[in-house]
Each structure stands twice: as C-alpha cells, then as structure tokens.
Specification:
Distance between the termini: 136 Å
CATH architecture of the largest domain: Alpha Horseshoe
CATH superfamily of the largest domain: Tetratricopeptide repeat domain
CATH topology of the largest domain: Serine Threonine Protein Phosphatase 5, Tetratricopeptide repeat
CATH class of the largest domain: Mainly Alpha
Order of helices and strands: HHHHHHHHHHHHHHHH
Radius of gyration: 35 Å
Number of domains: 3
Shape: elongated
Structural class: mainly alpha
Strand content: under 5%
C-alpha cells in the first residue's frame, strides 16, 4: 500500500510538473506572438505612414521629386487608380524629365508623366481636371521638344485648349499654343496665340517669335517691325543674331541687297561661325552675277556646317 501511495504521489507530481511546463510554454508562446504582432503592427503603421498622401505631400513640398516618384510608384502597386497619387507621379516625373541631361532618360520620365496624368484624367472626375489637362499639355509639349520631331504638338494644343476652356488660367498657355502651332506650320494660329501672349507679358522671345511667323506668312512689313525691336532692344546675342538673319532673308526677298549684306556682315562680326550668314552673302553675290564669290561663301558655310542644305544644293547645282 505504501508503495502504491508513493507511486500515486510521484505520478501527481509528474503530471503537475508537465502541466506547469505546458503553461509556461503557452505563456511564452503567447508573449512571443504578442511581441511579433506588436512589431509587425508597428512596422505596418510605419509603412502606412510612409506610404501616405501626407508623406507624399511633404516630399513634394520639399521638392524631393525623386522621393515623390518612388513613393507614388509603390503606392500605385497596391492601388493603381488613386487619382491623387497618379497626379503626384505625373508631376514628379515631369520635373525629373526636364532636369535630365540624357535625352533617353528624359523621354522615359516624360512618358511616365503622360501615362500617369492620362490615367488620372480617366480615374475620377474632379475639380482638378483642368489643372491635370494643363500639365498633360506641358508634358506633350516637352515630349515634342525631346523627340525633335513635331509628332506631339497637336496633342499639346489639344490639352492646352481643353485646360483653357475648362477654366484653368495660366499666363503661359497662349505662348505654349503659339510655339505648338508654329511647330505644325500653322502660321495664322501661331501669330494669333503669340499676339495674345504678348498682351499678357511682353518679352524679346515673343517679339522674335511673332516676327518669324510673319516672315513665314510673307508679311514682311509686320515681320520687320517686330524683328527691329529685338535687334535694337535685346541683350540676348543669340536672339539678335537670329532676328538679323531673318531680316537679311527678308531683304533678299525684297531684292534689297545693300541692307541684306549689312545684316549678314553684322552677324559675322559677332559670330564668325554663323553658316546662314555665309549662305546669305553667297546669294547676294549670285544675284550680282559673281558666281566665284558666291561659291566661295557657300563653301565657307559648309566648313562651318557640313550639312547646310542651301549651300549643298547651290554647290551641287553649280
């Protein structure tokens, strides 16, 4: 009997020990799970805070466009059609594009900007629609500049016009429209837009642009009015040389060889590597019947610019 009692006592102690061991294991497991959950929750809160519109706005306000672009990308992986995030991505991609020195990188960013802004337009109607249209127009305009062929000027015109008609007010819209129309050789529309821009803010660049468009439309009298102002008022040497070159061409069209030569000589006195000026002098000598001097000037043009189309044509035809 005593042995039985001892056995029962031992058995109870053993069971109690096993029970306590189980309890301790369970408590430790619960504590570990709670710790993991709290760390996970903390990380989730930190992640959620990082990927929030508030943080996106803070990055934007600090002009951290790379940060905005990267965070917007991560947020769109979870929810692809968040309009506000798409707008942030579109805007940041645009500013990253214009800051690039490599054209291929710039084009990649501008393509991202266009895609994001187009999605933002279709994702949900909002009061920001005109502003998005304006920025999309600027992106298309910039893509046209980067691409160096005027395949996107029509889309720039479309969205600038939509933005304007939908109530977005920006003083630079008429100038952008003028430049886009000019790229498409829509001279009358370009002059109209540039003239509107000039009424908002006069600049030497606009004066030159209007003069150039009037030259293309063969309204030489009006062209000269604007170009004279650039030559007499501007401190921008490049703009002055461009204006003098157009004036020289106008004088050639009017058969005013004396004034044409004066303009081309003035250009070369400032820049001896201006191919168009040598070409213009060659035309003057050709009109005067001196083919030897004419060909000499055209050869000078080719030494400066090996693919100058006018000089190549003249020398090949001679």
């Amino acid at each position: 009997m005593s042995q039985l009692r001892e056995y029962e006592s031992y058995d109870k102690k053993k069971k109690r020990k096993i029970l306590w061991t189980c309890v301790i294991i369970i408590v430790l497991a619960v504590a570990f799970a709670a710790g993991v959950s709290m760390r996970t929750l903390a990380k989730h809160k930190e992640y959620s805070k990082e990927l929030s519109l508030e943080n996106l706005e803070n990055l934007w306000n600090s002009e951290d466009y790379e940060g905005v672009y990267a965070q917007a990308d991560r947020m769109l992986e979870e929810k692809p059609m968040q309009q506000s995030v798409l707008v942030y991505k579109g805007y940041s991609a645009f500013y990253l594009a214009v800051s690039q020195t490599d054209t291929s990188a710039a084009l990649a960013y501008i393509e991202d900007s266009i895609n994001a802004l187009r999605l933002a337009l279709i994702s949900n109607y909002s009061k920001s629609k005109p502003q998005i249209e304006y920025m999309l127009a600027r992106a298309y305009y910039q893509k046209d500049v980067f691409a160096a062929y005027n395949c996107y000027a029509d889309l720039a015109i479309k969205y600038f016009t939509l933005a304007k008609n939908d109530g977005y007010a920006s003083n630079d819209i008429p100038e952008y429209l003028g430049l886009s129309y000019a790229a498409l050789n829509m001279t009358e529309e370009s002059i109209s837009a540039f003239t509107e821009a000039l009424g908002i803010h006069e600049s030497e660049k606009l004066l030159h642009a209007i003069g150039e468009q009037y030259y293309k439309s063969e309204d030489y009298s009006k062209a000269k009015q604007y170009l004279f102002r650039v030559v007499s008022e501007s401190n921008d040497d490049i703009l002055v040389l461009k204006s003098r070159n157009i004036l020289g061409k106008i004088y050639l069209e009017e058969n005013n060889l004396f004034d044409a030569k004066r303009e081309f000589d003035a250009i070369l006195a400032k820049d001896a590597n201006y191919a168009d000026a040598y070409y213009g002098l060659g035309i003057i000598y050709e009109k005067q019947g001196d083919s030897t001097k004419a060909r000499s000037e055209w050869r000078k043009a080719l030494r400066v610019q090996v693919n100058h189309p006018g000089a190549l044509q003249k020398l090949n035809n001679g």
